[in-house]
Amino acid sequence: MNSFIEELKWRGLFADMMPGTDEQLNKEVTTAYIGFDPTADSLHIGSLIQIKILAHFQQHGHKPIALVGGATGMIGDPSGKSAERNLLDEETLLHYVDCLKNQLSKFLNFDGNEPNKAELVNNYDWMKNISFLDFAKNVGKNITVNYMMAKDSVKKRLSGDAGVDGMSFTEFTYQLIQGYDFLHLYQNNNVKLQMGGSDQWGNITTGTELIRRKAQGEAFALTVPLITKADGSKFGKSESGENYWLDKKKTSPYKFYQFWLNATDDDAERFIKFYTFLGKEEIEALIEEHKTAAHERKLQKKLAEEVTVWVHGREEYEKALKASEILFGRSTAKDLVSLDEEIFLEVFDGVPQKEIAKTDVLGVNIIDLLSEKSGFLKSKSEAQREIKGNAISVNKQKVNDTFTANETDLIDGKFLLLQKGKKSYFIVKVG
Ligand SMILES: N[C@@H](Cc1ccc(O)cc1)C(=O)O
């Protein structure tokens, strides 16, 4: 079997392929593509597998093309969707296309000297010049409506099931446009294979069919499974339903890191194969080691490290790690003071906060600060009692009743972190 397919298989990243795909990859350096529709100004965790497949493909000596769907993004892929999508206005769409191009270009090797260097294309570049009449005549004629209607993405929407919308002609044409992309890339870029999530099988095979009919050629399809969590809940969304984005301005590297760190043991075993580039032996050894001391969460830590470094770089990972350690008390006051505001507030998300004038914080005795100045504790006597009981920390360091904060104690020049016992926090913001 071809080494790329073999790798997908042991990683659990193989869903299906057309007969002959294996032989094609063994025969020659093959060009394959995966498309990404611009539905937001960033890709999210849900697209990481597709990106990684392209990267593996390149590592195995083949040539990857990442396609940004400037044209298809205008239409909206009905695959796996139960309701019609809203159309984007052109300005928004163009912006999204730029964002995606930028992001995708960071993940593959575009080095000009390699024969299998990656390429980035935008289907709007060839679709924009095709008139509707030409498309209807030259493309539509090769595929029957019967054939198109037999696809899952269409069947589902015509089923009349509760909660499922009908389908506009716009979305119905989507598979033909994606099919035409494949034909175009087959004819112009020597693309012989299209890959994608398993929900893309229908669209991809419309393309191979079109290539067969219009170009008398043979092209192939390979799909990867849709990622789910072991407990059946949706992968890649926070509890409140938000996406985890790849753009660090939309999801901070700290949050991103936490996402992987919080994987269950079952998920961590799967995800480390899916989402890291570590080899089989190393992963198997890690899993074995993890089983002997699962509470140490070594597997999750390795997973979170590898993926965060891959997506955000080592420096951002180090920062995320440092921030995470603060919560678990494995950091020094100096680490804390050097955090920037954004990370600090993220780590202590949800902790009550009060803004207090500088003169009521700096140089003020801790008993007063804890009680009347901040209101964190109800009274001076409570403050005294807790301090005696050695339960009070400032910036994660235990303090006694002589403590007063000064300028150098302020986190990013603005905050002081008060704490009672293990878990009760209060943030003083110096105004
Ligand atoms: N339909 C794909 C994106 C895509 C767009 C154009 C293509 O030619 C290929 C794939 C998706 O929604 O994920």
UniProtKB/TrEMBL annotation:
InterPro entries: aa-tRNA-synth_Ic, Rossmann-like_a/b/a_fold, S4_RNA-bd_sf, SYY-like_C, Tyr-tRNA-ligase, Tyr-tRNA-ligase_bac-type, Tyr-tRNA-ligase_bac_1
UniProt: ATP binding residues: 237
Localization per Swiss-Prot or TrEMBL: Cytoplasm
The species this protein was found in: Chryseobacterium panacisoli
GO cellular component: cytosol
Record HAMAP family: Tyr_tRNA_synth_type1
Major subcellular location class: cytoplasm
Motif ('HIGH' region): 38-47
Catalytic reaction list: tRNA(Tyr) + L-tyrosine + ATP = L-tyrosyl-tRNA(Tyr) + AMP + diphosphate + H(+)
EC number, as in UniProt: 6.1.1.1
Family per record: Belongs to the class-I aminoacyl-tRNA synthetase family. TyrS type 1 subfamily.
PROSITE patterns cross-referenced by the UniProt entry: S4 (PS50889)
Biological role: Catalyzes the attachment of tyrosine to tRNA(Tyr) in a two-step reaction: tyrosine is first activated by ATP to form Tyr-AMP and then transferred to the acceptor end of tRNA(Tyr).
Residues of the Tyrosine--tRNA ligase SYY-like C-terminal domain: 346-428
Name of this chain's protein: Tyrosine--tRNA ligase
Subunit structure: Homodimer.
GO molecular function, one term: protein homodimerization activity
Sorted UniProt keywords: Aminoacyl-tRNA synthetase, ATP-binding, Cytoplasm, Ligase, Nucleotide-binding, Protein biosynthesis, RNA-binding
Motif stretch ('KMSKS' region): 234-238
List of residues binding L-tyrosine: 33, 174, 178
GO biological process, one term: tyrosyl-tRNA aminoacylation
